[in-house]
Amino acid sequence: MIKFLTSFLIVVSFLLSHGYSLEKDIDKDSFRLFAGNSNPDLAQEVANILGVDINEAEVGRFHDGEIKIKINDNVKGKDIYILQSVCTTKDASVNDNLMELYLLIRACKRSSAKRIVAVIPYLGYARQDRKYSEICPISASDIAMLLEAAGADHIISLDMHSAQIQGFYHKAIVDNLMIHFLVVPYFVRKDLSKVAVVASHAGAITRSIKFIDGLNRYNIDSRLVVCTALPQKNRTADIFLIGDVKDSDVLIVNDMCDTGKSLVAAAKELKKSGANKIYACATHGLFSHDAIDKIKNSDIDEMIITDSIPLRQDLPNNITQISIAPLIAAAIKKTQKGESLSNLYQY
Prior knowledge:
Blueprint: H1 2-17, E1 31-35, H2 40-50, E2 57-61, E3 67-71, E4 79-83, H3 94-110, E5 115-120, H4 139-150, E6 154-158, E7 173-177, H5 180-188, E8 195-199, H6 205-217, E9 222-232, E10 235-242, E11 249-257, H7 261-272, E12 278-285, H8 291-296, E13 302-306, E14 319-322, H9 325-337
Parallel strand pairs: 1-4, 4-5, 5-6, 6-7, 8-9, 8-11, 11-12, 12-13, 13-14
Antiparallel strand pairs: 2-3, 9-10
Helix pairs in contact: 2-9, 5-6
């Protein structure tokens, strides 16, 4: 109940702070909202906020496991929004959900949709965003080619793994929504003091600076600390801190949490270095294997994640999930009205 109220208050705060209302100036007949099977609860919450129904589409399987798509609505000349995270769920693999998205886009494209907007809260295959060896794909770029070839005109995603991924799209418009302005007010209510915002790796520095700027807007003095791991052969990586966390409340920032190994190790090192309360924020909770148990038994006092990926098990008391539905709904509303999404980042 406490976690539900926390998420509800964040949602209400966001809606009120952005003056959100179900205005009549949006022609609800001009667009259609569809969803695959990856995150039906989030899709329904977005539809409820927008005051529309999720349009009927049969997204199932043939007996051999092939994806079967049938759209039971007229999409000709309409703007189409397809909400689908490219992630692993209880009943499907990341590849299944990617193929659902691809075929939904193709079905709408073949039926003369006016514009197709792929709303992808979690965009999988983003971690391989450059060549790590001589012979390997740049998966993030190849997925971009796939979605553009399918017919996606616009991509709306949430906290992409790296900024350069937006440059992999040469035809589609890309909006990369961030959650710092949604989460920072929550941490402000914690009455933090002497705050150290920890970038869990070098690539997280820009993301961490956004949190620092947000905290500074609330007159909370904060500074950047970088936590980096030096891999060691046949043993656990050595962790180094660049910056001081002694007697500080700490906020570890990252885009995702997969196995939880690096996060838990970083929290342990921070506690050894004299940190007080340790908080963490990861937009996407992948939680592979025993990640949740690792976090439950770690030095992390509280971790915030979003519902960009549906949970596959219950959460312990030190993990709180908040809803991104109001952010997604606002982005869809502004896109449909032809407005900029920039003011979504205002506190």
